Amino acid sequence: MLPHLRTRDVWKLARKSLPLIPIAIAIGAVAEEPGVPRATFAAAAAMPWALFLFGVRVPRLVTAMVTFGATAGLLLIPDPYVRAPLFLVFLVAVHPRPLSPDYSLVKFVAALVMMVGFQVAGWLDNAALWSVAIAYAWLAGMGVQLQGQLATESRRARRAAAERAAIEERSEVARELHDAIGRSVAVMMLHVSGARRALTRDPDDAAQALQRAEEAGRASMTDIRRTVELLGKDAGQPGAREIPQLLEQFTRAGMTISSRIDGDLGAVHGASGHVLYRALEESLTNAAKHAAEVPVTVELAVDAHHGRLLVRNPLLGVPNGGRGHGLGGMEARALRVGGRLTVGAVDGEWRVDLSIPIEVTE
Question: What is the number of structural domains in the chain?
């Protein structure tokens, strides 16, 4: 059974076998009418291609000049070889890599001029037929070469797309882990802060707060493992329907959150719901880190066409954070679904305003 060959392998094999054609033409010329002049010119025409078989690359200009000279010699000797223009047909059919249109066109025009000149001088019959053969060979060779270049460019484009996909995947991993770890750490810090405040007045409350911090830490490790497992599956990521649990988690940790939700979160399509969830998670995490003691207002409205999330909290003299990895992740997710994100201080408040188009399921 023959081994499986890819198109690329067949193409390479064909290119390596091309020099056998002019060598075969030269052997046919000598076999038809043995003689020193004919053998000399035939060997000269085949020599550059024979050297190519042994890994020696003759300059293109030298190959062309030798081929034209040997062809002329075969047509002018006392016993001319009438099929000598086959060398020219082969020469114009083989194009360099990368393709050089100017060089190929010069070969083509020179071959036609030679055919016409020999016809006019009476040294060649059927010059018109040879000219057609040369033109066809040139066009066919040009087409094959262009097809090869397009295939190469296509492979490069696929590799570049794969590299971009890998980079985006690594960025998505970083964003997901950043959000999962950041939220869990923020919740743990809220519990620890509550335990510290309750330590002197009520040890039992402090112990409960520390227990909740421990539970939050364990949940964080579970979230991280689940995130790593699910990133490759593109399924199971938290979405809009988990937003109430997210709000409850921060509320139990001690944050004061006033929330208003309009619309059916359970009907929001996964991609849009995931963006809403992560944006709210990052907003609450930033609020917990920079302004945990102030109330946070969350407004979320979704319908069949779009969704809007607005998270507000009073400033305490220091903004909730700069354009770090978390906000960059929110922006990247919003852009990916065609949304718009605005973050900054407005009228003494820190605001995160996200608007995205969404799809809902029935």
Answer: 2
Q: Quick check: 278 and 179 in contact, CB under 8 A?
A: yes
Q: How high is the pLDDT of residue 123?
A: 87
Q: Is 73 helix (H, G, I), strand (E, B) or coil?
A: helix
Cβ-in-10-Å burial (0-12, 13-18, 19+) of 128 comes to exposed
Q: Which residue has the tokens 């002018």?
A: 76
Token pair for residue 176?
Answer: 């997901």
Domain that residue 194 falls in? 161-357
**Residue length of the chain:** 362
Task: In whole angstroms, give the CA distance from residue 95 to residue 63.
Answer: 12
Average pLDDT along the chain:
80
pLDDT of residue 68: 94
- Find out whether 74 and 81 touch, Cβ atoms under 8 Å: yes
Two tokens, residue 41: 């010119």
Q: Cis (ω within 30 of 0) for the bond into 98?
A: yes
| Consecutive H or E run containing 296 | strand 296-302
The CA distance from 180 to 159, in Å, is: 31
Question: pLDDT (tens digit, 9 = 90+) per residue, 163-178?
Answer: 676 666 666 666 666 6
Question: What is the rounded average pLDDT of the residues 304-309?
Answer: 90
Based on the fold, state whether residues 323 and 228 are members of the same structural domain: yes
